Amino acid sequence: MTVSARNKRVAWIVVVGLLLSSVLAGVVSFYASSQPDGLERVAEDKGFLGNAQDSATKDSPLADYGVKGVENERLSVGLAGLAGVGITLVAAFGLFYALGRKRPEDPDSVAASGDDVTATSNAAG
Amino acid sequence: MHIPDGFINAPVSAAAGVVAIGALAVCLRGARRELDEQTAPLAGLVAVFVFAAQMLNFPVAAGTSGHFLGGAMAAILVGPYAGALAVSVVLVIQGLVFADGGLSALGLNIINMGMVSTLAGYGVFLLVRKLLLKTKTGIVAAAAVAAYISVPASAFFFVLEYAIGGAGTFSFNQVLAAMVGVHAFIGIGEAVITALVISAILAVRPDLVYGARGLLPNLELRPALSANPSNSSDSATETSSLHASRSAE
């Protein structure tokens, strides 16, 4: 496999992963359990749930995973989920591209990716 | 497991914020070493997937649900530093945009879910990996155990924080037992999702899985530096390096 073919396969994984995430956040999320999670359950049972205060961002248009003003519950949570996927995508890809970019002084970025594999596996082992 | 404002008092929340900023700074430095052009988009995908999967609360017992944390999966896929950053990005967005987890509690949530679940998960993964066969199955099994342990580990840190800065009267042991007890169930979901994701990536591109590097026999493109000194043209060098090579470990 050539280097460009390998990169294409990474792109393929990313595209499939983003589509899967969009379906999970945009469609499947409607069917998620609305029971209290583990921490809320313990807080209720042990009597400190009442200490919880509203978040400073409770009036956000996407607060509590719903789009403000959208009455249809399925649509509201689905759109909020898709918005979250989009926001996370922009923030995380921006951050990680900046961190992963080879510095200009790097002599050979293709060879460097092979070197990285060896270096990191040594560090991890 | 997102802590709202008010569970933990202001001084402890503020101290946690300072610790979280320090930890994030360390992760930013470490992630530079872990990431390259190939793995940067994978780390971005990890963050997006963690956001989506965290929306999917699954029932664990009567009247209780749990959700994916993602720290162990992230660390095994893209490395512990980049993994902790990926989960932390999600936590910041959840707190700022979705009012999930308090703003004053953001440092606590970053410590518990961004750092502890990631580091505990990766630590357990490395330990279990040593005990198992160096095969894809062994790596997936180690990932599942790591993901399982990471959930009660994260819950345990909440109990510590509540013991120091909790604003209620309670028995530490009772809260500890309740938190670890319920999260021992939630960890099963974490293990299942993590095992599915890791085995899917291992099936397609095993060399992309950070925690599997150097363990699996692999078709790798290596620059043929001194292996073939007589071939100096670029195309010949590339062809000669296109052979199955077991990694140096």
Helix-strand blueprint:
The complex is a heterodimer of chains A (125) and B (249).
Chain A: H1 3-26, H2 38-45, H3 73-100, H4 109-124
Helix pairs in contact in A: 1-3
Chain B: H1 10-34, H2 39-54, E1 58-61, E2 64-66, H3 71-78, H4 80-97, H5 106-131, H6 136-165, H7 172-204, E3 218-219, H8 234-240, E4 244-245
Antiparallel strand pairs in B: 1-2, 3-4
Helix pairs in contact in B: 1-4, 1-5, 2-3, 2-4, 3-4, 3-5, 3-6, 3-7, 4-5, 5-6, 6-7
Q: How does this model look, in words?
A:
The complex is a heterodimer of chains A (125) and B (249). In chain A, 61% of the residues lie in helices and 0% in strands. Chain A has helices spanning 3-26, 38-45, 73-100, 109-124. In chain A, helix 1 runs antiparallel to helix 3 (73-100). Mean pLDDT of chain A is 84; it is low at 107-125. With 249 residues, chain B is mostly helical. Helix content of chain B is 65%, strand content 4%. Chain B has helices at residues 10-34, 39-54, 71-78, 80-97, 106-131, 136-165, 172-204, 234-240, and strands at 58-61, 64-66, 218-219, 244-245. In chain B, strand 1 and strand 2 (64-66) form a beta hairpin. Residues 226-249 of chain B have low confidence and may be disordered.
Give a quick rundown of the structure.
By secondary structure, chain A is mainly α. Chain A has helices at residues 3-26, 38-45, 73-100, 109-124.
The biggest beta sheet of chain A reads: none
Characterize the main sheet of chain B.
2 strands, antiparallel
Query: How large a portion of the residues of chain A is in β-strands, by DSSP E?
Result: under 5%
- What is the averaged pLDDT score of chain B? 89
Q: What separation lies between the terminal Cα atoms of chain B?
A: 39 Å
What key attributes describe this structure?
heterodimer, A: 125 residues, mainly alpha, 4 helices, disordered C terminus, B: 249 residues, two-stranded antiparallel sheet, 8 helices, 4% strand, globular
